[in-house]
Amino acid sequence: MTQNPQNAKNLLIVFDLVSTLTDAGPRYVRAFADICEKFGYPKPDEEEVLEMLGNKNLKEITQHFLGDINDDLQGKFMQSCNKECDAMLFREDWHEDLFPHVHETLEKLHQDGHKLGIYTGTRENALEDQITYHGIKHLFNAAYIRGKDNQRDAGINSRDLKAAQLESLVERHRADCGDKNAPVLVIGDSVADAEAAADKGYLFIGFAANDRKKEKLQNSGVKYLMTDFADLPLLIKGATGGVAPQEKSAYETVKKKRAPRRWKR
């Protein structure tokens, strides 16, 4: 059964990275499209690639657009994609932002004493580069960060990888605070994020940067949904049962605006 703690004591808040905290999706898409052209493949529909991010891993995306290719060529293609994507972050002609209100919201949650973590299908070294680039590394404890290792995690789909990462983080968190029932809240932008959280019974708040993602998350049964990180502190109180009576009307307005729906388990 999904958690519904009555307060936020010992709360761990875990964020997906790409397209949740960082608006990095366009960089991943551009890198993939550029490498397709360099390898002599047709340029993919960039909106379709963007749609797949978070729900599919790079191998699955590559197979979708390139079809059946031999393992050696696939490996070289994927390695080139990763190198191109990593390099773009530090090019003078490329600029990347956090989504609006992400930084100040993370700062507030950190100052309020919440433990903040990251789980992501992004490779570990690229994850480090991103959170450093965006100036948010200091807000997260390294013990509560999980990225992808291409050898260790090879062949694992996004949903299963994220579920495993979350399980590892929760196990560490509950051991650290000495509370085997310590609450966990997951923040993500994809259906795979929502499903991974649901698999383990963790509370989930979806983030939708556009109407397309909002609709997909709603249709998947996400109960709590935001389109602006400024809403997150209030949604956290609601999701964890910590809304004070004088704040309840404001929280109900947020819920109505976000058109929440319940999981179908």
Kindly describe this structure.
This protein is of the alpha/beta class and 265 residues long. The chain has two domains: 174 residues, HAD superfamily/HAD-like (Rossmann fold, 3-Layer(aba) Sandwich), CATH 3.40.50.1000; 64 residues, Orthogonal Bundle (DNA polymerase, domain 1), CATH 1.10.150. Helix content is 48%, strand content 11%. The protein has eleven helices and six strands. It has a six-stranded parallel sheet, with helices on both faces. Strand 2, helix 6 and strand 3 form a beta-alpha-beta unit. Helix 1 crosses helix 2, helix 1 packs across helix 4 and helix 7 crosses helix 8. The longest helix has 20 residues. The radius of gyration is 19 Å and the shape is globular. The N terminus and C terminus are likely disordered.
